[in-house]
Design the sequence.
């Protein structure tokens, strides 16, 4: 079954654990996810099944939204509540205006040094594997974007917040950095992902419900054609379908491609199945050339 599933990940599981459980219960060989969620975190985890796993590249740049809380005065080795306590400092003098000012400094384009306890790889080995052995390696800063970072509630030493950020942002690193900026240290006490791109927590199903459905996942998530609503839909005729299905380009009148995003479009022949993801690749005799990036229909 080729679908995009939105799962409300429970705490204490890796994203890979969730993938494995869905794979076992549904007996679908190909199951993947569009972005890792830390084991302690909960919330939206987008899974792809069957042919939909080939859509993964089109979710890479989706922004994420989270709600969480940081704990002032305590720093840990993993920057979250799972790590060993490294230092405790008195946060008693920290005020709400100081916290809001500190958070504001992390809005916009920022550079982050990824934590050692992460899935990033160093010479082929995940950093978290090295961290478990006590090995620390240099990590290059990465540029990420934080669109919004706001305090929701301040009950010392707990600071609840909401954040909207680009893919690849380590929220626990922001929590740790905010603590250092305030002079008292901090760690991420808890985190829930509330949105990934167009998929919100209100659309998510529990892992238990998905497992209970076993092989019939038709009532969960979305079919491939509906999975990328931000991309405009191009309906093709039989001749164009044949060309696209075999990797060929087609010439399309401009008015059929109004509103394309980054040149990408969803292509369908029947309005029900996703034939391909296409990209605009120049003009020819007053038409726009569209070439398939990924073809999902079986070749004829």
Sequence:
């Amino acid at each position: 079954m080729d679908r995009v599933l939105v799962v409300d990940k429970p705490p204490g599981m890796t994203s890979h654990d969730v993938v494995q459980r869905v794979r076992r219960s549904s007996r679908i060989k190909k199951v993947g996810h569009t972005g890792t969620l830390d084991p302690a975190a909960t919330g939206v985890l987008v899974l792809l099944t069957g042919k939909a796993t080939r859509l993964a590249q089109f979710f890479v740049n989706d922004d994420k939204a989270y709600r969480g809380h940081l704990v002032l005065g305590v720093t840990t080795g993993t920057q979250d509540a799972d790590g060993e306590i490294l230092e405790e400092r008195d946060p008693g003098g920290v005020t709400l205006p100081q916290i809001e000012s500190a958070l504001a400094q992390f809005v916009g384009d920022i550079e982050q040094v990824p934590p050692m306890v992460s899935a990033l790889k160093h010479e082929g080995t995940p950093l978290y594997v090295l961290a478990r052995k006590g090995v620390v390696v240099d990590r290059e800063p990465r540029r990420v974007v934080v669109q919004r970072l706001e305090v929701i509630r301040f009950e010392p030493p707990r600071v609840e917040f909401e954040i909207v950020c680009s893919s690849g942002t380590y929220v626990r690193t922001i929590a740790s950095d905010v603590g250092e900026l305030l002079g008292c240290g901090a760690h991420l006490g808890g985190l829930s992902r509330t949105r990934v791109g167009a998929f919100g927590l209100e659309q998510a199903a529990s892992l238990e419900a998905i497992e209970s459905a076993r092989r019939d996942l038709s009532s969960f998530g979305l079919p491939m054609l509906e999975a990328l609503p931000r991309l405009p839909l191009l309906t093709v005729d039989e001749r164009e379908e044949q060309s696209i299905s075999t990797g060929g380009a087609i010439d399309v009148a401009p008015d059929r491609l109004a509103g394309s995003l980054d040149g990408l479009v969803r292509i369908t022949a029947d309005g029900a199945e996703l034939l391909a993801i296409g990209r605009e690749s120049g003009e020819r005799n007053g038409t726009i050339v569209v070439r398939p990036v990924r073809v999902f229909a079986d070749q004829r």
Remarks:
- The chain has three domains: 3-62+198-223, 64-195, 231-295.
